[in-house]
Amino acid sequence: MNAQAHIAKLPRVSSIDIAVAAFVLWLMVDDLLLQGREFELFAYLRLVALLLCYVGVRLLRCRAVIVLGAVAVWTLVEVTVALLQLGSIIESNHLLYGMTGTFGNPGPLGGFVAMGIVVMAGLMATMRSKVAVAALAVLTSLTAVVLVCADSRAGWLATTVGIAYLFGRYIARAWRRIPIWGKCVALVVSAGVLVAAYFYKEKSANGRLLIWRTTIDMIADSPLTGHGSGSHAEQYMYYQAKHFEANPESPLADRAGVVDRSFNDLLRVWSEGGLVALLIVVFIVCHIDWRAKRWQHTVNAAMLSMATFALFSYPSYLLPFQLAFAALLGCAASGGHGGGKCKTAVAALALAACAGTLVYCQCRVSDADAQLQELIAGREVHIDTDTEEVICATPRLLSTYATYAATYGDVEILELAARKSPSPDLLCDLAVCNAAAGDHANAESWLHTAHYMVPGKIRPQYELYRLYVTEGDTTRARMVVKNVTGSSIDAKSSAALRMIGEMKRFYENTTE
Questions:
Q1: Per-residue pLDDT tens digits for 283-300
Q2: How far is CA 219 from CA 7, 211, 276, in A?
Q3: What is the pTM of this model?
């Protein structure tokens, strides 16, 4: 076979392929050269796995059918787990919510089943077998039950947008037949539903407004190149502290909490990758064939559903969404079917490599978790550099590692955690260690920052009061107590009540 024949068998490179390659390349250049961040192999392995998933799906024959079927099956797995949790047969993954699926809370579950409903509705509209359609109708109804119980407004909106796009042709035809007064009523009702959705969980909505407001501050400091991959989790809490220090009377202060996610993936892309990364994403969206029909139309509807959810949540942080998006984008890169057996074999290798990479990453997380648990149990375990890298790339493990370090006064580990995954409690632990070492200036600085991170949290103020008492500075200690008793700090836990009680007794038994 001559060279021309071999070239003919190669997949045609699309504009989306080029944009995906440019996006990955830009992230690496931005991180390593422009931001000067350290090369974190573990974090890049996950990115490589997603790229392999995209390439594998891109080369598959009948890619749209396979991917849509996989999303539908995955959705049914989530629905099964959620219903078992709803029936108290198995435990959920969150203490406050009875139903989470395989996710950490009901929000992502709502977003994933929203995409699943759109996919199953598209499959029903395309299939001709009445038995298959009836079976899918039953399964879709069960999925809708889980969607309602997940209580996710973003999931409900994502379902609505996906279904509206999927059946847009019929909806547009029906809309043209409605009289003017009927259209006005429909628009008023739609606006009323959106307003009601805001007030349905007003505190949650205001919390998102605060997160978006603070993320925009991050963007303003580095709009072109961003702050680097993963920087939102590392820097957000410090920006939130700066915001409340500059705006102590902010009405959003009571909605402040510990945040490591942007709740808007477009803002995340801009804050971490800069305007360049954002423009690449916009380019990809504009070059998807939104006029495609049949299976490809359902693929686009699923992507639109996920994109809508991403405007109010954080699917880009979660592996199931990442894999689903990479696969759907691989379908959207070009219509039609893949090539011959040669391409299918390469696709299988790419997907196998993707699975192998993810399994390797999961094994490393499990191994790091096991070592950490042994360390906490008092066994002599050496946390080497590679294991520490995995711990730093996994917020759950890093939080546990920092809590352990606080009990032994390991300032080095606490400072590492303060750079990677800051929180008020972590900064309080760091301040206590600094104070124990005689570094009261640094301790005071950490406590001021911890206070402004979450103004309604009592512990930073309590530790600051204790610091001043230790220094013998009764005046400033009394001032802290006066500020606490005159503020709107909501102390509900027994620990918080104990702290306030101790501070009040000190104030009553001392004079300036």
A1: 999 999 888 888 899 999
A2: 44, 12, 12
A3: 0.91
